[in-house]
Amino acid sequence: MAPRRLGFWQRFAVVLVKPVLTVWTRRTWRGMEHLRRDGGIIIVPNHISHADPLVSAHFIYDAGRWPQFLGKASVFKVPVIGWILHRCRQIPVERGSVEAVKSLDKLIAALDEGGAVVIYPEGTTTREPELWPMKGKTGAARLALATGAPVIPVAMIGPERMFDPRTARIGLRPRTPVTVVAGPPVDLGRWAGAMPTRAILEEMTDTIMLRIRDLVAEIRGGTPPPLWQRPARTGAPEVSE
After folding, report:
1. Alpha helices of the chain — where are they, by DSSP H?
2. Which helix (H) or strand (E) holds 4?
3. Residue 137 near residue 144 (C-beta atoms within 8 A)
4. What angle do CA 12, 152, 37 make, to 5 degrees?
5. Strands 91-93 and 169-170, how do they pair?
């Protein structure tokens, strides 16, 4: 990415973070050509560790795009930190029915401006015991339906060695191997122009998550399990084949 396209605080973030990641990780990047250089895109990675945003940001930056992550609106209200996040073009997300609509408007505006918006469709780090993807939330599907922006699946393994959410263990070994692969846009054409009903959004979300899961299987090897969902209070986990 040409430095002239970045503001001061974006360049500051790169100078601060990228050298650390360059030492901390040994990287295998594939599929960067799917993150087109111009125009709005929705990037949907799997979520296996709290180190994911660092690794995925490094990958997206190396692909020539500036990643715009969603963050809790409360974080943007913290003095200094919130000010820097705003200037690094990160996106605050409100919770609640009315505020959620305002957040969607912010995401649409970011895509209209040609941004590379990063959404973790699982909403949190996966709870699947072996860190396979689980069923997702409908935010990415809703945004794709509203904008028509391409949804780019991204799969990664390795950040769990930097921080394992199952044990809260931090791994500081230099050159920790990480692999990140982007795939071609998810084919959501059958829903173009559809009303954003709950059923439609869930179908789209399952399609997105299954594509991410299959990408994960390509780099992990083995047969991927069905999408995992947290058990209901009185029942077994639900799955999507």
Report:
1. 8-24, 52-62, 81-87, 97-112, 139-147, 159-162, 198-220
2. none
3. no
4. 50
5. unpaired
Phi/psi-derived region of residue 148, left when phi > 0, alpha when psi is between -120 and 50, beta in every other case: left
- Angle at the Cα of 29 (from 156 to 203), degrees rounded to 5? 40
H helices, E strands: number in the chain: 7, 11
What are 112-167's pLDDT values in tens digits?
999 999 999 998 899 999 999 999 999 999 999 999 999 999 999 999 999 999 99
Residue 43, helix vs strand vs coil:
strand
Helix (H, G, I), strand (E, B) or coil at 213: helix
- Has this prediction a pTM greater than 0.85? yes
Residue 43's pLDDT band, with cuts at 50, 70 and 90, is very high
Residue type, 238: E
C-alpha to C-alpha distances, 117 to 30, 36, 203, nearest whole angstrom: 19, 13, 21
Strand, helix or coil at 135?
coil
Q: 4 vs 216, which has greater pLDDT?
A: 216
Residues 173-196 have pLDDT tens digits of 999 999 999 999 999 999 999 999
- Which residue reads 């990480």 in tokens? 178
